[in-house]
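Dear U.,

Please find below the material for section 3 of the report. The protein was modelled together with S-adenosylmethionine; I have listed the sequence and SMILES used, followed by the predicted complex structure.
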Amino acid sequence: MTDRPGSLPFEIITTADGSPTARFGDNETMHSLRGAFSETVYIYGTALDRASQLLSKEPAESPSISPRTLSLGLGLGYVEILASAYAAKNGQTPKGESFELVDELTASFQAWVYSRPEQLVPHSLYDDVARRTSEITGITVGVGEIRAGLAKSLDKKDWVLRPAMTLETIFEQKFSCVAFDAFSSKSTPELWSREFLDRFLSTACEQTCVLSTYACTGHLKRALVDAGFTLEIREGYASKRDSTLAHRA
Ligand SMILES: C[S@@+](CC[C@H](N)C(=O)[O-])C[C@H]1O[C@@H](n2cnc3c(N)ncnc32)[C@H](O)[C@@H]1O
Protein backbone atom coordinates (compact mmCIF):
# COMPACT_ATOMS: atom_id res chain seq x y z
CA MET A 1 0.00 0.00 0.00
CA THR A 2 1.44 3.41 -0.91
CA ASP A 3 1.24 6.67 1.04
CA ARG A 4 -1.98 8.60 0.62
CA PRO A 5 -1.75 9.50 -3.06
CA GLY A 6 -3.32 12.45 -4.90
CA SER A 7 -6.73 13.75 -4.01
CA LEU A 8 -10.21 12.36 -4.13
CA PRO A 9 -11.86 12.39 -7.57
CA PHE A 10 -15.05 13.42 -5.73
CA GLU A 11 -16.14 15.24 -2.61
CA ILE A 12 -17.74 13.64 0.43
CA ILE A 13 -21.02 15.28 1.44
CA THR A 14 -23.63 14.52 4.08
CA THR A 15 -27.10 13.36 3.05
CA ALA A 16 -30.35 14.20 4.84
CA ASP A 17 -30.25 11.17 7.18
CA GLY A 18 -26.76 12.22 8.30
CA SER A 19 -24.92 9.52 6.37
CA PRO A 20 -22.15 10.30 3.85
CA THR A 21 -22.09 10.03 0.08
CA ALA A 22 -19.71 11.06 -2.70
CA ARG A 23 -20.43 13.74 -5.28
CA PHE A 24 -18.55 13.82 -8.58
CA GLY A 25 -17.70 16.80 -10.74
CA ASP A 26 -20.75 16.31 -12.96
CA ASN A 27 -22.92 16.51 -9.80
CA GLU A 28 -23.87 12.83 -9.89
CA THR A 29 -23.94 11.45 -6.35
CA MET A 30 -23.44 7.85 -5.30
CA HIS A 31 -26.65 7.79 -3.27
CA SER A 32 -29.86 9.67 -2.84
CA LEU A 33 -29.36 13.02 -1.14
CA ARG A 34 -32.35 12.10 1.04
CA GLY A 35 -30.26 9.46 2.78
CA ALA A 36 -27.42 7.24 1.60
CA PHE A 37 -27.81 4.82 4.46
CA SER A 38 -31.61 4.67 4.34
CA GLU A 39 -31.55 4.14 0.58
CA THR A 40 -29.05 1.28 0.92
CA VAL A 41 -31.14 -0.47 3.56
CA TYR A 42 -34.33 -0.04 1.51
CA ILE A 43 -32.90 -1.22 -1.81
CA TYR A 44 -30.10 -3.66 -0.90
CA GLY A 45 -30.94 -4.68 2.67
CA THR A 46 -34.26 -5.98 1.37
CA ALA A 47 -32.43 -7.99 -1.31
CA LEU A 48 -30.09 -9.57 1.26
CA ASP A 49 -33.10 -10.51 3.40
CA ARG A 50 -35.09 -11.93 0.49
CA ALA A 51 -32.16 -13.96 -0.84
CA SER A 52 -31.54 -15.37 2.61
CA GLN A 53 -35.22 -16.33 2.90
CA LEU A 54 -35.16 -18.04 -0.51
CA LEU A 55 -31.99 -19.96 0.34
CA SER A 56 -33.10 -21.08 3.79
CA LYS A 57 -35.44 -24.02 3.22
CA GLU A 58 -37.40 -23.59 6.41
CA PRO A 59 -38.37 -20.00 7.15
CA ALA A 60 -37.57 -20.67 10.81
CA GLU A 61 -34.25 -22.30 9.94
CA SER A 62 -31.59 -21.01 12.23
CA PRO A 63 -29.07 -19.83 11.36
CA SER A 64 -30.43 -18.76 7.99
CA ILE A 65 -28.16 -18.92 4.97
CA SER A 66 -26.37 -15.77 3.86
CA PRO A 67 -26.34 -15.30 0.09
CA ARG A 68 -23.17 -15.10 -1.98
CA THR A 69 -23.47 -11.47 -3.01
CA LEU A 70 -22.28 -9.44 -5.99
CA SER A 71 -21.89 -5.71 -5.45
CA LEU A 72 -21.60 -3.42 -8.48
CA GLY A 73 -19.93 -1.10 -7.56
CA LEU A 74 -18.20 -0.95 -4.22
CA GLY A 75 -18.40 2.86 -3.89
CA LEU A 76 -18.22 3.68 -0.17
CA GLY A 77 -18.81 0.08 0.88
CA TYR A 78 -22.35 0.37 2.23
CA VAL A 79 -23.48 -2.92 0.68
CA GLU A 80 -20.37 -4.80 1.85
CA ILE A 81 -20.78 -3.50 5.41
CA LEU A 82 -24.46 -4.44 5.40
CA ALA A 83 -23.67 -7.90 4.00
CA SER A 84 -21.07 -8.46 6.71
CA ALA A 85 -23.54 -7.43 9.43
CA TYR A 86 -26.27 -9.72 8.05
CA ALA A 87 -23.82 -12.61 7.81
CA ALA A 88 -22.59 -12.02 11.38
CA LYS A 89 -26.18 -12.05 12.58
CA ASN A 90 -26.39 -15.58 11.13
CA GLY A 91 -23.06 -16.55 12.71
CA GLN A 92 -21.34 -16.41 9.31
CA THR A 93 -18.83 -14.29 7.44
CA PRO A 94 -19.84 -12.60 4.18
CA LYS A 95 -19.30 -14.24 0.81
CA GLY A 96 -19.22 -12.39 -2.46
CA GLU A 97 -17.42 -10.06 -4.82
CA SER A 98 -17.34 -6.29 -5.29
CA PHE A 99 -16.48 -4.55 -8.52
CA GLU A 100 -15.18 -0.99 -8.62
CA LEU A 101 -13.87 1.24 -11.38
CA VAL A 102 -12.07 3.73 -9.11
CA ASP A 103 -8.96 2.08 -7.64
CA GLU A 104 -8.74 4.60 -4.80
CA LEU A 105 -12.12 3.46 -3.49
CA THR A 106 -11.01 -0.16 -3.37
CA ALA A 107 -7.69 0.75 -1.72
CA SER A 108 -9.45 2.95 0.85
CA PHE A 109 -11.98 0.27 1.74
CA GLN A 110 -9.28 -2.37 2.07
CA ALA A 111 -7.21 -0.06 4.29
CA TRP A 112 -10.21 0.38 6.60
CA VAL A 113 -11.00 -3.32 6.73
CA TYR A 114 -7.41 -4.17 7.71
CA SER A 115 -6.89 -1.08 9.94
CA ARG A 116 -4.00 -0.02 7.74
CA PRO A 117 -2.96 3.62 7.19
CA GLU A 118 -5.83 5.65 5.85
CA GLN A 119 -6.04 6.14 2.09
CA LEU A 120 -8.12 8.78 0.36
CA VAL A 121 -11.43 7.98 2.03
CA PRO A 122 -11.17 8.51 5.81
CA HIS A 123 -11.64 5.50 8.07
CA SER A 124 -14.17 7.55 10.04
CA LEU A 125 -16.53 7.41 7.04
CA TYR A 126 -16.61 3.59 7.01
CA ASP A 127 -16.82 3.56 10.83
CA ASP A 128 -19.85 5.80 10.56
CA VAL A 129 -21.54 3.52 8.00
CA ALA A 130 -20.78 0.44 10.12
CA ARG A 131 -22.03 2.15 13.29
CA ARG A 132 -25.30 3.07 11.55
CA THR A 133 -25.61 -0.47 10.27
CA SER A 134 -25.14 -1.85 13.75
CA GLU A 135 -27.41 0.65 15.52
CA ILE A 136 -30.19 1.45 13.10
CA THR A 137 -30.94 -1.86 11.41
CA GLY A 138 -31.44 -3.60 14.75
CA ILE A 139 -28.70 -6.07 13.83
CA THR A 140 -26.91 -6.19 17.13
CA VAL A 141 -23.48 -6.68 15.62
CA GLY A 142 -20.72 -4.24 16.55
CA VAL A 143 -18.50 -2.23 14.19
CA GLY A 144 -15.50 -4.40 15.13
CA GLU A 145 -17.36 -7.58 14.25
CA ILE A 146 -18.54 -6.18 10.92
CA ARG A 147 -14.99 -5.22 10.01
CA ALA A 148 -13.46 -8.46 11.31
CA GLY A 149 -15.94 -10.47 9.22
CA LEU A 150 -14.89 -8.59 6.11
CA ALA A 151 -11.18 -9.03 6.92
CA LYS A 152 -11.65 -12.76 7.41
CA SER A 153 -13.55 -13.09 4.15
CA LEU A 154 -10.99 -11.05 2.19
CA ASP A 155 -8.20 -13.20 3.66
CA LYS A 156 -9.95 -16.42 2.71
CA LYS A 157 -10.96 -14.98 -0.66
CA ASP A 158 -14.56 -15.62 0.32
CA TRP A 159 -15.08 -11.97 -0.56
CA VAL A 160 -13.03 -10.63 -3.47
CA LEU A 161 -12.49 -6.99 -4.49
CA ARG A 162 -12.32 -6.78 -8.26
CA PRO A 163 -11.71 -3.94 -10.72
CA ALA A 164 -14.28 -2.52 -13.15
CA MET A 165 -16.85 -4.87 -14.59
CA THR A 166 -16.96 -5.09 -18.38
CA LEU A 167 -18.60 -7.28 -21.00
CA GLU A 168 -15.54 -9.52 -20.78
CA THR A 169 -15.70 -10.10 -17.01
CA ILE A 170 -15.68 -13.78 -16.14
CA PHE A 171 -17.53 -15.08 -13.09
CA GLU A 172 -15.97 -18.22 -11.73
CA GLN A 173 -18.73 -18.68 -9.19
CA LYS A 174 -22.28 -17.45 -9.42
CA PHE A 175 -24.23 -15.27 -6.99
CA SER A 176 -27.57 -15.57 -5.24
CA CYS A 177 -27.87 -11.87 -4.41
CA VAL A 178 -26.99 -9.01 -6.75
CA ALA A 179 -26.78 -5.39 -5.61
CA PHE A 180 -26.81 -3.71 -9.01
CA ASP A 181 -25.71 -0.27 -7.93
CA ALA A 182 -23.87 1.03 -10.95
CA PHE A 183 -24.12 4.69 -11.84
CA SER A 184 -27.00 5.75 -14.04
CA SER A 185 -27.38 4.61 -17.63
CA LYS A 186 -26.33 8.14 -18.63
CA SER A 187 -22.91 7.78 -16.94
CA THR A 188 -22.30 4.06 -17.55
CA PRO A 189 -24.45 3.15 -20.58
CA GLU A 190 -22.50 -0.09 -21.20
CA LEU A 191 -23.71 -1.59 -17.88
CA TRP A 192 -27.36 -0.99 -18.75
CA SER A 193 -27.29 -2.24 -22.35
CA ARG A 194 -29.33 -5.28 -23.28
CA GLU A 195 -26.17 -7.07 -24.48
CA PHE A 196 -24.44 -6.59 -21.13
CA LEU A 197 -27.49 -7.44 -19.04
CA ASP A 198 -28.30 -10.67 -20.92
CA ARG A 199 -24.77 -11.93 -20.53
CA PHE A 200 -24.55 -10.80 -16.92
CA LEU A 201 -27.79 -12.50 -15.88
CA SER A 202 -26.83 -15.77 -17.55
CA THR A 203 -23.23 -15.94 -16.32
CA ALA A 204 -23.35 -14.24 -12.90
CA CYS A 205 -26.66 -15.33 -11.38
CA GLU A 206 -27.45 -18.60 -9.61
CA GLN A 207 -30.79 -20.19 -10.42
CA THR A 208 -31.96 -19.01 -6.99
CA CYS A 209 -31.17 -15.33 -7.08
CA VAL A 210 -32.45 -11.95 -5.97
CA LEU A 211 -31.39 -8.84 -7.87
CA SER A 212 -32.11 -5.36 -6.62
CA THR A 213 -31.39 -1.94 -8.03
CA TYR A 214 -32.53 1.61 -7.43
CA ALA A 215 -33.34 1.84 -11.13
CA CYS A 216 -36.15 0.55 -13.29
CA THR A 217 -35.18 0.72 -16.96
CA GLY A 218 -36.96 -0.97 -19.86
CA HIS A 219 -33.87 -2.97 -20.89
CA LEU A 220 -33.40 -4.21 -17.34
CA LYS A 221 -37.02 -5.29 -16.88
CA ARG A 222 -37.10 -7.14 -20.20
CA ALA A 223 -33.74 -8.81 -19.61
CA LEU A 224 -34.83 -10.00 -16.14
CA VAL A 225 -38.14 -11.41 -17.39
CA ASP A 226 -36.44 -13.18 -20.30
CA ALA A 227 -33.95 -14.70 -17.84
CA GLY A 228 -36.83 -16.15 -15.80
CA PHE A 229 -36.96 -13.62 -12.96
CA THR A 230 -40.19 -12.46 -11.38
CA LEU A 231 -40.34 -8.70 -11.15
CA GLU A 232 -41.45 -6.68 -8.19
CA ILE A 233 -41.56 -3.03 -9.07
CA ARG A 234 -41.32 -1.14 -5.81
CA GLU A 235 -41.66 2.50 -5.09
CA GLY A 236 -38.31 4.15 -5.74
CA TYR A 237 -36.36 5.71 -2.91
CA ALA A 238 -37.04 9.44 -2.43
CA SER A 239 -37.27 11.25 -5.76
CA LYS A 240 -37.02 8.10 -7.91
CA ARG A 241 -40.33 6.83 -9.23
CA ASP A 242 -39.68 3.07 -9.28
CA SER A 243 -37.02 0.61 -8.22
CA THR A 244 -36.58 -3.03 -9.20
CA LEU A 245 -36.48 -6.08 -6.96
CA ALA A 246 -36.46 -9.33 -8.93
CA HIS A 247 -36.21 -12.93 -7.83
CA ARG A 248 -35.81 -16.33 -9.43
CA ALA A 249 -36.34 -19.39 -7.23
C1 LIG B 1 -23.84 4.34 -7.12
S1 LIG B 1 -22.16 4.10 -6.76
C2 LIG B 1 -22.15 2.67 -5.74
C3 LIG B 1 -22.41 2.96 -4.31
C4 LIG B 1 -22.07 1.77 -3.43
N1 LIG B 1 -22.91 0.63 -3.67
C5 LIG B 1 -22.03 2.09 -1.97
O1 LIG B 1 -22.60 1.31 -1.21
O2 LIG B 1 -21.45 3.10 -1.60
C6 LIG B 1 -21.58 3.43 -8.29
C7 LIG B 1 -20.15 2.96 -8.23
O3 LIG B 1 -19.90 2.20 -9.40
C8 LIG B 1 -18.57 2.45 -9.83
N2 LIG B 1 -18.47 2.03 -11.24
C9 LIG B 1 -18.74 2.71 -12.37
N3 LIG B 1 -18.54 1.94 -13.46
C10 LIG B 1 -18.16 0.73 -12.99
C11 LIG B 1 -17.79 -0.50 -13.60
N4 LIG B 1 -17.80 -0.65 -14.92
N5 LIG B 1 -17.44 -1.54 -12.81
C12 LIG B 1 -17.44 -1.42 -11.46
N6 LIG B 1 -17.77 -0.27 -10.83
C13 LIG B 1 -18.12 0.78 -11.58
C14 LIG B 1 -18.39 3.92 -9.55
O4 LIG B 1 -17.04 4.28 -9.48
C15 LIG B 1 -19.11 4.07 -8.21
O5 LIG B 1 -18.24 3.89 -7.14
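For the text of the report, you could mention the following: The chain has one domain: 38-248.

Regards,
Y.
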